[in-house]
Specification:
By secondary structure, the chain is of the alpha/beta class. Helices cover about 40% and strands about 20% of the residues. The longest helix has 17 residues.
């Protein structure tokens, strides 16, 4: 794995080893339209950490759009991850992903650095250009410009973390060298993982990102994507998200779900072994089972403990 000067504890937890690591996506209870049960979510977060999961990932969903079908973990990303940090020990905390086109870069830089400090450096930031059409006019953003907005804000956030009293100007505003954004991240900066294509070229993502976060893909397509990524980005990590519903029978064959599979643990063992062989570094699992704790334990026994 390639090394970077600003790796923090979360990045090392996810990517320092030689093998595939596994994380869990909020909401852990499976609730995705209403506010999840808070004590239960925290209980499951601690359960995931005790089982050996390496990351807990929260999505940035400012509003609920019924047509899209979910509201993420409902709670705002920054206070939610701070709360999770206070109830866990060393598991990495990730965003999947902060929509930079809808966020002011000073707010993102300050909020992320705050969570990074409060969690002792466990934060890894997936960042995206967004995909919920009604949110752009709600925030006064021209969706046709989201590629340029993403790129400009991405670079601004990096500068805000790494330069003292920066001179910086963009469509979002200007800094003339008299102001500094505090606190600083624990290790000088926070890893940024562009998500999907983020309206950028793959070469730009490889050059500027600290990794790449992508969605579930057919295996042949995934293998091709990772080959291209390695050619462009070297050892920078590749992260993918997948929805999983565990079948009752361990030997159950896979059935397609939106962005994932329903399958037995025996097939999932083989699937995750193939993912590791393709070069995937971390998988974010969103479990669809009603009994989340039992499903989490079965995933850990079948995949993590192997």
């Amino acid at each position: 794995m390639a090394t970077h000067g600003h790796e923090n504890e979360g990045y090392r937890r996810l990517f320092d080893g030689d093998g595939l690591t596994v994380g869990a996506g909020f909401p852990l209870t499976g609730t995705n339209r209403s506010t999840p049960d808070l004590p239960r979510e925290l209980e499951l977060a601690r359960h995931a950490e005790s089982l050996g999961f390496d990351g807990l990932w929260a999505r940035d969903v400012p509003t609920f759009w019924p047509k899209f079908g979910d509201a993420g973990q409902t709670f705002d990303t920054w206070p939610w991850l701070s709360h999770v940090a206070a109830h866990t020990e060393g598991i990495a905390l990730g965003t999947a992903s902060v929509v930079l086109t809808l966020r002011h870069p000073i707010h993102v830089a300050k909020s992320a650095a705050t969570v990074d400090r409060l969690s002792n450096g466990r934060l890894v930031l997936g960042v995206a250009s967004g995909d919920r059409d009604p949110e752009y006019p709600a925030f006064g953003v021209d969706r046709t410009e989201r590629g340029d907005l993403f790129r400009e804000r991405f670079e601004a956030i990096r500068t805000l973390w790494t330069e003292e009293y920066p001179e910086l100007e963009g469509e979002w505003g200007a800094l003339d060298g008299r102001l500094e954004v505090v606190p600083e991240p624990t290790n000088g900066s926070i890893p940024l993982l562009p998500t999907g294509n983020a309206r950028q070229s793959r070469e730009w993502i490889a050059d500027h990102g600290d990794g790449w976060l992508f969605y579930h893909l057919p295996e042949r397509t995934l293998e091709s994507y990772i080959e291209t990524w390695r050619a462009d980005a070297g050892g920078k990590p590749y992260v993918m998200a997948v929805r999983i519903e565990l079948a009752d029978e361990p030997g159950a064959e896979p059935e397609p779900l939106h962005l994932g599979y329903r399958a037995g643990t025996e097939w999932l063992q083989e699937y995750f072994t193939r993912l590791e062989g393709y070069g995937v570094d971390h998988v974010i699992v969103s479990l669809e089972n009603e009994n989340s704790a039992a499903a989490m334990t079965r995933v850990a026994e079948a995949i993590i403990d192997r």
